[in-house]
Structure formats: C-alpha cells, structure tokens
Amino acid sequence: MITEPSLEYRELVSERIRQALKMGQWQDAVALLQHLHPADRTEVFEELSPEEQQALIQHLGVENLAELLEWLDEEEAAEIAQGLDTAQLADVLDEMDPDEAADLLGDLRPEQARQALAEMEEAEEVRPLLGYPDETAGGLMTTAYVALPRSATLEEAIAFLRSIDPDTDIPNYLYVIDENQRLVGVVSLADLLRTTPQTRLEEVMDPKVIYVTADTDQEEAARIMSKYDLSAVPVVDNRQHLVGVITFDDLVEVLEEEATEDIYHLASVSDEDLDPESPLPEQIKGRLPWLYLNTLTALFASWVISNFEHIIAQAAVLALFQSVVAGQGGNTASQNVAMTVRSLALGKISPKNLLRILVKQFLAGLALGLLVGSMVGLGVYFWRGNLYLSLVLGSALVANLALGAVMGVLVPLALKAAGADPALASSILVTAVTDSAGFFIFLSLASRVLDHLK
C-alpha cells in the first residue's frame, strides 16, 4: 500500500536529484525519480530546471522516458519530444500506448512527426488514430484492445489472454466480432471463468453492446461511460467495424478537462490551460476579450441609468439601492446558468421538457424574489422609514429575480443552439440582461411614486 507523498517529501526528493545530477551520479538521480509513482514522478520532474531535466532525460532509458511522457502535460511532453532525435523518439513512441503516442505525434511539428512515424516499429497501431480530431471518441480511443471471432471458444480466449505481453493492460471486456470485423457482442472476464472451456463466445456474449461512433464528441462518450458505469466502451466506424476502445483512465482525463473548461468558461476565461503562473501575454489573450465584452455590457447598463438621471437627481436615495436589484438578479441568473450548463452536459434538457423547466424556474425565481424582496423591503422600511421605497425595492427584486431565473436557462440554450459553448459567455450575457433590466424596473417603478421618495 502507498499514500500520496507530502509536498515536503517531494521537495526533498527534488533536492536529492539535483545534488545527484550536480555530482554526475546519473543512475542515483534516475533511481530517486523512478522510486516514485508516475503521477508524483511528473511533479518532481517539473520542479527541476530545464538543464536538470535535460540531463536526467539523457539517462532515463526509453521505457522510463515513455512512461514519463505519458504522464506529463501535453505541452511539456511535446517540448521534450521535440528535443529528441528521430530514432530515439521513434523508440519512445513504440513504448507508449497507441493513443498516447498518437496524441504526442499530433503535438509535434508535421515533419518531425512524419519522420518519427516512419521509424516506428508499431506505426500501424498508431497511424489510424491520427485521422481523428482530438476531442472525439476516435481521438480518445486506443487500438490496444482484445477482440476475438464469435466462433472462438472460451478456452481459446483464455489462452489468447495469457499470450498477451505482460506489459499490456488486461481489459475488463473481451469484444466479439464477426467475419467482417463488425462488433457483435461483449464478454466480461468474469463470464470466461464461470463457463465451461468449450463454450463458444457467441453463446455467452451480450449482444446488446453499448458503443460510440468514432466521431462522437469526447464529452458525450464520457457521459455514456458514466451513465452505464462502464470501465471501457468500444468505438465503431459508420459500418459498425470495431476500430478502438476508450478506457476508464481516458474517461477521467476527459471529465477533468471538461470540468476545468466549464469552470473557466463560466468565469469568462477562454483558455482552460491558464494558471496563475502562465506567461503574461497568454493571460491577456485569454482574459482581455471577455473583459472588453463585459465593459460594453456595463456601459449599456450605465446608459439605461442615464435615462433616469432626472429621477435620481430628485430622489438620491434611489442610487443607494439600485445595485441591490441588479446584483440579486445576476446572482439568481448565475445559479441557473450553472445548473443549465451542467444539465446540458448530462443530456438532461430536451425539447420535450424545456417548457416545463422554464415554467419551474420562473416559479422558483418568483418565489425567491418574494422571499428576498419581502426581507429587503422590510429591512429598508425600518432603516429609512419610507413605505413606498420599500414597496418599490421589493417589487423590483421580485420581477428581476424571476427574469434572471428564466434568462439563466435561455441564454445557455441559445448559445448551444448557435453552436457555441453554453458556458463561455453565459455569465456575461445574463449579467448584462439582469443589470440593465434591474435598473430599468427599479427606476421605472420609482418614477411612478417619485413624490413619495423625495
């Protein structure tokens, strides 16, 4: 059993590796790194300087370097691979899982990738994967799966599994194909052990195979795997030929990527690879366009307020509370944006239930508005002693929260219908609507009872 090493321990290992490299004790440095789990190994490796990393790479060996590249971030792995000569790179790619090798080749310069592919011994396992876009099931799958003909016996299947290279990951499923290489069934390893050896696969296979097509979006593939609790899902082409398998570890990566993407997009950051230490130009590129858009929407809200300048001039107290109406409407809308984006990702919103969702969220917004509006109105009455101000503020909150609840559903749906990521600009757009509408509703109501607010 192992546990995650502490930060202090990883820092200690990093320092010992630096000392070993400085003294030319290459094998000691490699041993210190290899002693760690691959996930911790990458963190320690990333703490080293570029010069120390390069010195370590030269003594890692092909197998260890291949494993390191599989665990590193794509950009860092590509940067290291670009520094390798063609022969060494080809050897490393041969040691990697086919899907990982294909991803790495896709991040290299075209000429370097072509030369490395030509030098590889197992290029045929990787080449089919290069034709699929990265964010599809085809770009995510691996060709390292087990498929046998339907006429094979369980004894033959077990013998085949035993003959697999020990370094190959043993699958939880054995896929069954017909004479035309079409997927016709699936058999679990448990089924192999429970049935007599001479039984044929077609007699014990489950013909109701859950699969995805090669052009299925990776997020949809991950959703299907999660829904049906699969540790792997087969991928077929448009003729039902089995072309690959997506494994559970790939699912985890997709879910992490999609969750990060949604979080960043909800915060109006277009580049999900940004972190606090990203270079300044990248920070500006990923954030500035949305700040510009947010500025435009804020100026529009200011224009709405400017149309009521004469009202505010006569009742300055309105300026104290107008932001309460706008802010609470925006908060309600943002809550619904988060729920709607999540529901869209899980496939829970369809044309059949859309109207029901809108009605329910309108009623929820109305109820929240009544609760918040009555509380705020009562508090303002005790504070300012003006019943009309309390009624105007409470009524505006009811209206804007109800509007915000509906807009929090409609805006993400509209963006998805337009082919855009519903998370990317939803927060800015709903805030623009609820701010502008909140100011308009509050100041319009105030203008009706202006004489009682002075």
CATH topology term of the largest domain = Tetracycline Repressor, domain 2
Low-confidence stretches: none
Query: Count the strands?
Result: 6
Largest sheet: 3 strands, mixed
Structural class: mainly alpha
* CA-CA gap between termini: 73 Å
Number of domains: 3
Shape: globular
Provide mean pLDDT, rounded.
85
Computed Rg: 30 Å
Helix content: 55-70%
Describe what is shown at a glance.
With 454 residues, the protein is mainly α. The chain has 22 helices and six strands.
Please characterize this protein's 3D structure:
- This protein folds into three domains: 7-135, MgtE N-terminal domain-like (MgtE N-terminal fold, Alpha Horseshoe); 147-261, CBS-domain; 280-452, SLC41 divalent cation transporters, integral membrane domain (Tetracycline Repressor, domain 2, Orthogonal Bundle).
- 65% of the residues lie in helices and 6% in strands.
- It has helices spanning 7-22, 26-34, 38-47, 50-57, 62-71, 74-82, 86-95, 98-106, 110-119, 123-126, 137-140, 154-163, 189-194, 201-204, 218-227, 248-266, 280-306, 309-314, 318-345, 351-384, 387-417, 426-448, and strands spanning 147-149, 173-177, 183-188, 212-213, 232-236, 242-247.
- The strands form two sheets. It has a three-stranded mixed β-sheet. It has a three-stranded mixed β-sheet with strand order 4-5-6.
- α17 packs parallel to α22 (426-448).
- The mean pLDDT is 85.
